[in-house]
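Key result, reporting period 2: structure in, sequence out.
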């Protein structure tokens, strides 16, 4: 009784379970009266069944009408679409994905906690106060909470009306939270912004459109509470990186185009229209995870992670309901908005595998006559701006604040409360 499981990007783990055996480069699943033989041929593999045993394995709604069937697994195919007699592989695949997500989440969570120990991570040293774990929906779900980062005003001075940043964290729609992204809240607040650093529900437990429903709920909370916290609803910025950039872009679409989705109508009805969107290194077309590999070869394990994002976020979502999971494709085919689209700042590293989504978004926005600025940072990887001790990250933040100051000043020359970007 044993099973040798290959998993997590080339690491091999041995576990024990009755009735079947797995080995590389071939493995055979043994069960009473059936046998499935797999051959791993990265990036695809073949499933074949002998005709005599195929008849024994048919059941339920899965038709098998050919005498000798061969199924080729290719990139983008969902293992949950494979026949039931290979369900063991589904379980192994889910285990591998969950283990990979947990490992990455643990890494970034640990890095975030380590960063909080640095003396400069204390908000008070930057003239910032933090209000934590404020519910924006009365669900009791810890994912329906936000932290407010706001500059402190001198004693006796009335609270200033400040521009608002709604920050939506990245993490492939599957991991991370406002707590791992405390640095983003602090970075904007120390420059004079009132920041809502938001958590939201995560896939695969809560696939699309749960995250966007939550983002729309944040806007409703902002409309009801902005004044009491010193926020200016005429100067709102949506910001996020990676998956958060997707959500920020989709939320901007929902506030500027009349749409039929319930969450989009909720966002529209707030009458909040952002003045700017900061969409850093976004993954902007989730339904087509293989587009990057078609453009140029990428590492198989990177492609694997991108597919996991798509499978988790869109699991069970019909194609006709996915439009705002793909805000890039939506803008590429969109007409003129019902309300003016905001200006977009699009920073990305040239070694980021998601780079082409930023290029395409910039082109789509320019075609719509929207002010958009794409900045490409040579040699930098995905989400490089989070490593604030590096020169390129500091340059990215300077460029971000310069764009925001200029954008908000176009109609409000004073832009009160903002600290100019440092040289």
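The corresponding designed sequence is given below.
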């Amino acid at each position: 009784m044993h099973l040798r499981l290959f998993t997590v990007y080339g690491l091999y783990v041995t576990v024990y379970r009755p009735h079947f055996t797995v080995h590389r480069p071939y493995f055979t699943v043994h069960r009473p009266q059936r046998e499935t033989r797999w051959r791993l041929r990265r990036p695809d593999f073949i499933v074949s069944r002998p005709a005599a045993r195929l008849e024994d394995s048919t059941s339920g709604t899965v038709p098998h009408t050919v005498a000798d069937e061969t199924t080729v697994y290719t990139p983008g195919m969902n293992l949950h679409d494979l026949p039931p007699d290979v369900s063991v592989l589904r379980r192994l695949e889910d285990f591998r994905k969950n283990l990979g997500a947990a490992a990455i989440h643990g890494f970034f969570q640990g890095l975030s906690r380590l960063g909080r120990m640095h003396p400069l991570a204390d908000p008070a040293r930057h003239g910032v106060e933090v209000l934590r774990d404020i519910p924006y929906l009365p669900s009791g779900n810890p994912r329906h909470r936000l932290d407010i980062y706001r500059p402190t005003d001198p004693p006796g001075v009335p609270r200033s009306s400040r521009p608002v940043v709604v920050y939506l964290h990245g993490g492939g729609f599957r991991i991370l939270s406002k707590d791992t992204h405390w640095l983003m809240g602090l970075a904007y607040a120390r420059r004079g912004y009132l920041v809502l650093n938001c958590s939201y529900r995560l896939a695969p437990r809560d696939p699309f459109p749960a995250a966007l429903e939550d983002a729309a709920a944040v806007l409703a909370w902002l409309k009801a509470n902005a004044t009491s916290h010193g926020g200016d609803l005429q100067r709102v910025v949506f910001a996020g990186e990676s998956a958060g950039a997707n959500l920020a872009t989709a939320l901007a679409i929902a506030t500027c185009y009349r749409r039929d989705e319930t969450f989009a109508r909720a966002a529209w009805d707030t009458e909040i229209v952002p003045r700017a969107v900061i969409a850093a290194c976004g993954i902007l077309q989730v339904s087509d995870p293989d587009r990057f590999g078609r453009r140029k070869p990428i590492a198989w394990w990177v492609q694997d992670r991108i597919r996991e994002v798509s499978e988790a976020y869109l699991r069970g979502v019909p194609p006709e309901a996915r439009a705002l999971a793909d805000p890039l494709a939506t803008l590429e085919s969109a007409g003129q908005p019902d309300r003016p689209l905001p200006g977009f700042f699009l920073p990305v590293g040239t070694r980021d595998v998601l780079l082409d989504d930023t290029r395409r978004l910039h082109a789509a926005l320019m075609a719509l006559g929207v002010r958009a600025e794409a900045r490409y940072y040579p040699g930098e990887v995905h989400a490089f701006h989070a490593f604030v001790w590096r020169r390129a990250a500091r340059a990215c933040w300077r460029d971000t604040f310069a764009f925001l100051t200029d954008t908000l000043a176009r109609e409000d020359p004073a832009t009160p409360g903002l600290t100019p970007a440092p040289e």
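The CA atoms of residues 205 and 312 lie 8 Å apart. DSSP finds eleven helices and 14 strands in the chain. This case is discussed further under Risks and Mitigation.
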